[in-house]
Amino acid sequence: MVTKRHFGTTKNGEDVCAYTIENDRGISVTVLDYGATLQSVVLPHKGGWVDILLGYDTIEEYEQNDGYVGASIGRFAGRIPDSVLRIWNDAFPVTANEGKNQLHGGLVGFDKRVWSAAVGDDSVTFSLVSPDGEEGFPGACRCFAIYTVSDDALSIEYAGASDRVTAWNPTNHAYWNLNGHDAGDTREHRLEIPADRFVPVGPDAIPTGGEADVTGTRFDFRTVREIGETYDNSFVLSGGTVRLFGSIGIGMEIRTDCKAVQFYNAKYLSERPGKDGAVYRPYGAVCLETEGRQALKNAPIAEENVLTPDRVLSERTTRYQFLYEEN
Known about the structure:
It is a single chain. With 327 residues, this protein is mainly beta. The protein has one helix and 29 strands. Strands 11-12-13-14-29-23-22-17-20 form a nine-stranded antiparallel beta sheet, with no helix packed on it. Strands 1-2-3-4-5 form a five-stranded antiparallel beta sheet, with no helix packed on it. The protein is globular and about 60 Å long.
């Protein structure tokens, strides 16, 4: 079942609505048409409920959202070094919004657009058109973000079609805390990432070269272990399932057809008010952004991130399966 309510009005006078998808398993997921944003994920837990997703109560807070909390990211997730998009033998200057680099689609990315919405029985489909030249990206691109709740799982599917060769690397920037969105530090969460290789980065978060072997490093999450330290790196998936576990009996398995996952444990999440009177602080969440491989300096983007007119629709799907102790 999907219910719709008015959420607020943007500073530009656009109405924003919230859509809540509920099922008979007790899962309730709320998404906004502003930024095709995941606003809450409420699960049954030991006779009550727990919201495991960081978010905000007002549209004003989402418009000031410097951490992309819950938002859909596009056209290109992650950083484009020197704000030069390289597709095959062509180079396109794109908008810089993090020093000399572009981050998460530029100044006005997908996260700052109000999308159109269509409601299904257990899903909401958001759509928008990103015009040719928006934030420097070539081609007019039709974009879709589809949220579906079934059994004990949430699926997010992104799809796109373009009239020119362009970049296509969307993701969702959910901030997860499996102990509850207001529960604080997540460095004791346990994580498993089936990845043999990761991308080392410098102080500016730009890759210092190519991929590196995780063996013998702190980036080896091939068996489940406590997070502990600070991370903001892309991991190249080698198959299998990403797993995350909190300490109150809730876990999550992530299955995706994406080539990589950006693991960020919210070191730079400044102290701020959140939903329901919560206060969010650094390390208060885990981000596992399923996406294509990261853009490297002076190199063409990975082939899976290239969208061409002859591909009628390019799709990427991620399924979040929630695990519970007995209630």
